[in-house]
Automatic annotation (TrEMBL):
Region spans: Disordered: 1-125
Compositionally biased residues, Low complexity: 93-104
Residue spans of biased composition, Basic and acidic residues class: 1-63, 71-92, 105-125
Species per Swiss-Prot/TrEMBL record: Alexandrium andersonii
Protein name: Uncharacterized protein
Length: 125
């Protein structure tokens, strides 16, 4: 009976040790799985942040390109407008010169006609 009690005690002690070893192994396995899950989540977060940063940088780059294109287009339109204004001014100045010359010619002809009429009237008298 004593030997049986001793064997029973040893068996229980061995089962207890086995149970503790299993529990410890299970705890380690769970801790390892948790550590892996956290590492995976962190890697996903870092990758997501990097994608967002790249997308933002790309969008900013596209905005800069669009802004530069707009500025170029506006400066080109401004240059065209200035050239057109300059051409309009020259055309107006040329038209004014022509009009002035025509007016001077008309006045000269009018004076000549007046002088001719005077002479004719003087001859008639």
């Amino acid at each position: 009976a004593e030997r049986k009690a001793k064997e029973e005690a040893e068996r229980k002690a061995k089962e207890e040790l086995d149970r503790k070893a299993r529990d410890e192994a299970e705890g380690k396995r769970k801790a390892q799985a948790e550590a892996e899950r956290k590492a995976r989540e962190e890697a996903e977060r870092v990758a997501r942040d990097e994608r967002e940063r790249k997308a933002k940088a790309q969008a900013e780059g596209a905005d800069k390109v669009a802004q530069m294109a707009r500025a170029f287009r506006e400066s080109r339109e401004e240059a065209k407008r200035k050239v057109k204004e300059e051409a309009d001014k020259k055309a107006q100045a040329e038209a004014a010169k022509v009009q002035q010359a025509q007016q001077a010619e008309a006045e000269k002809k009018e004076k000549e006609d007046a002088v001719r009429r005077e002479k004719e009237e003087a001859k008639e008298r």
